[in-house]
Amino acid sequence: MKRVTSSAYNIEKVCDVNQISRQIVSGQLDLETAFIQLKQLNAKASPYTNVQLTAAATLSAPFFSIMFGGNVYDAIGAGVATIFAFTFSLYVEKFIRIPFMTAFAGALVFGLIAQFWARYSGFPSTADLVIAGAVMPFVPGIALTNAVRDIMTNHINSGMSKMFESLLVTLALGAGTSVALVLMN
Questions:
Q1: pLDDT tens per residue across span 162-182
Q2: Per-residue confidence at 93, pLDDT binned at 50, 70, 90?
Q3: Within 13 Å, how many C-alpha atoms sit on residue 38's CB side?
Q4: What gap in Å lies between CA 84 and CA 24, rounded to an integer?
Q5: What predicted TM-score, i.e. pTM, was given to this entire model?
Q6: What is the DSSP string of 93-155?
């Protein structure tokens, strides 16, 4: 067994590994060359920078807020809350490489900003709808989906570990938001 300290979903890397596997099976690559290519692939940097990840999260959050019944001001508040929360969670992740803690930190920030936005911005906005939009980029949807798929295909160990990690992150999001609400009341 090997401890996995961080997991990210890079579909491009999965496709590259699959291509190397196909080349081995077809006889186009020998094992030594394939091993070298796999080591190079493992050392390859993430395809997205933290700025790109933050921009994607910030652009998606307002649409989630509207989807949940919010107005334009809720959407703007969700975007503002997400840019600060996502940036802060990436900063926390540099020092504390625990997904539970980074999710908690992000939720605390977007929860506080949502409360400030709803109370002091002067716009007709609801903190709940700002939070609903801001939380969505943090939700571990892919991990949860993969966990369920693994369990259904009888990969119990990997499925249960991913399921538990996803549920802990979800719990951290709820805890961070709750702490923010308690602090603002």
A1: 999 999 999 999 999 999 999
A2: very high
A3: 16
A4: 46
A5: 0.82
A6: HHH---HHHHHHHHHHHHHHHHHHHHHHS-SS--HHHHHHHHHGGGS-HHHHHHHHHHHHTT-
Question: Once rounded to an integer, what is the mean pLDDT over residues 106-116?
Answer: 97
DSSP codes joined into one string, 150-165: HHHTT-HHHHHHHHHH
Copy the structure tokens of residue 63. Answer: 């649409």
Q: Six-digit token pair at 123?
A: 């716009």
Residues 53-72 pLDDT 10s:
999 999 999 999 999 999 99
Q: Residue 135 half-sphere exposure, CB side, CA atoms within 13 Å?
A: 23
Which of 85, 93, 94 shows the shortest CA–CA distance to 58? 85
**CA atoms of 70 and 53, how far apart (whole Å):** 24
Q: Which residues of 95-132 are buried (b: 16+ CB within 10 A; e: fewer)?
A: eeeebbbbbbbbbbbbbbbbbbbbeeeeeebbbbbbbb
DSSP assignment of 83-96: HHHHHHHHHHHHH-
- Comparing CA positions, the residue from 122, 134, 121 lying closest to residue 180 is 134
Q: Which amino acid is at 167?
A: L
